[in-house]
């Protein structure tokens, strides 16, 4: 690996002793280097694949040992934040893409430009690299990716005489009514969660904020128009009413996989679960299309996923070993193996082999990735979804007018982003 990671670490206070992180202590001078990897994947469905790959890596690199630790995803961000601040973080972290700029801003992550970890940078989709960047440097290597798509039941669409997926939200509304009248099944069931509302903003050429110009845009005419469209998809023929219960996600998913609703907006993390339902015993009945477009003609959904990042507080030997490990885990061959085992989406096109694309879910979601929109380089961006998750269910259920909800969000965003103009 090329030198330079430690030299560019942000804070001198983070240039810690070898005992600073879980895998950085106790190595003999002539023995293998031991690095610690915090994996934040599902411990039951995904982690076994990663554990097996760790063994493969160690066989190929006998001078490096990997201490594998599975950390629950919902705890990992706070755990890493605490550990890095107290000089005890792991050498490698599987970080949700929204965490990367936030941890980079704090100086907890090592820049990976011109290191072994990013030797194949051009193989990754530029949008995925973009959201691993902060202040002109790259702090993560794209590991798995995702986005949202319109997933639909081909058989129900065909029964209703509909031959293709809707291209616009108006088309979706019309199709839902037709499906209801022809099959008796609701055509569409929308989510009240903030993440699932993003495509409606993108469809009007806007977002919750304009990060480049440091402006809050949630009350802009464009945002209001997009969320008016979103609100309108909870009431009408073939449109399921808003579910604001704590189990809404499970209710929507269960209805779709068992043929009780024809279409929903969902991500590739549910690919394997789609096939467990009665509606998709034939996997080819699963239709996947880009989310419908708004009035601007634009269609897109947020880019999600995870990067592999390296702790800035590890010593140089451990950072170099970590970079070797990250390169292995993000190689085309490894990514293809992960996709085949876990049904997750690779972050590089050369990992979409013919064998990988035999899964119609993976092949389908690959086609919608070009429309995925990267998150802006704003450490607080993902935090904006918290207030939205509080307000959007009220709006969707009719308990609160849209204008009032947006005004509440405007105030909440201003508290999170005091330097942004309204």
From TrEMBL:
InterPro entries, sorted: SBP, SBP_1_CS
Regions annotated as coiled coil: none
Keywords, ordered alphabetically: Signal, Transport
Lineage top rank: taxon: Bacteria
Signal peptide: 1-22
Family note: Belongs to the bacterial solute-binding protein 1 family.
PANTHER family named in the record: MALTOSE-BINDING PERIPLASMIC PROTEIN (PTHR30061), MALTOSE_MALTODEXTRIN-BINDING PERIPLASMIC PROTEIN (PTHR30061:SF50)
Record-given protein name: Sugar ABC transporter substrate-binding protein
């Amino acid at each position: 690996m090329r030198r330079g990671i430690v030299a560019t670490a942000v804070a001198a206070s983070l240039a810690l002793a070898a005992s600073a992180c879980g895998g950085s202590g106790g190595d003999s001078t002539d023995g293998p280097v031991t690095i610690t990897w915090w994996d934040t994947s599902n411990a039951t469905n995904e982690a076994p694949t990663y554990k097996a790959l760790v063994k493969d890596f160690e066989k190929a690199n006998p001078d490096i040992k990997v201490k594998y630790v599975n950390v629950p995803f919902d705890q990992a961000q706070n755990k890493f934040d605490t550990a890095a601040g107290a000089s005890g973080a792991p050498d490698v972290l599987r970080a949700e893409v929204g965490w990367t700029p936030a941890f980079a801003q704090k100086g907890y992550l090592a820049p990976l430009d011109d290191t072994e970890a990013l030797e194949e940078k051009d193989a990754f989709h530029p949008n995925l690299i973009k959201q691993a960047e902060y202040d002109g440097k790259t702090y993560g290597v794209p590991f798995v990716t995702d986005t949202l798509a319109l997933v639909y039941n081909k058989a129900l669409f065909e029964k209703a005489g509909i031959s293709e997926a809707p291209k616009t939200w108006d088309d979706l509304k019309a199709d839902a009514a037709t499906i209801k009248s022809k099959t008796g099944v609701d055509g569409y069931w929308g989510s009240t969660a903030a993440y699932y509302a993003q495509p409606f903003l993108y469809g009007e050429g806007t977002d919750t904020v304009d990060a480049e110009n440091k402006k809050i845009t949630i009350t802009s005419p464009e945002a209001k128009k997009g969320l008016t469209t979103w609100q309108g998809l909870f009431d009408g023929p073939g449109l399921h009413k808003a579910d604001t219960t704590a189990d809404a996600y499970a209710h929507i998913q269960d209805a779709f996989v068992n043929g009780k609703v024809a279409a929903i907006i969902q991500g590739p993390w549910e690919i394997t679960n789609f096939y467990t339902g009665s509606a998709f015993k034939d996997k080819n009945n699963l239709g996947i299309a880009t989310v419908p477009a708004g009035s601007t003609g634009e269609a897109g959904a947020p880019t999600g996923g995870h990067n592999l990042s390296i702790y800035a507080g590890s010593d140089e030997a451990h950072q170099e070993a970590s970079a070797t490990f990250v390169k292995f885990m993000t190689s085309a061959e490894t990514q293809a193996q992960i996709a085949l085992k876990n049904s997750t989406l690779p972050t590089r096109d050369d990992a979409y082999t013919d064998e990988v694309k035999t899964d119609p879910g993976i092949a389908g979601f690959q086609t919608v990735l070009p429309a995925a929109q990267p998150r802006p380089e704003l450490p607080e961006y993902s935090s904006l979804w918290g207030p939205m998750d509080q307000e959007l269910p009220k709006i969707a259920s009719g308990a609160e007018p849209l204008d009032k909800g947006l005004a509440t969000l405007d105030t909440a965003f201003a508290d999170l982003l005091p330097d942004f103009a309204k």
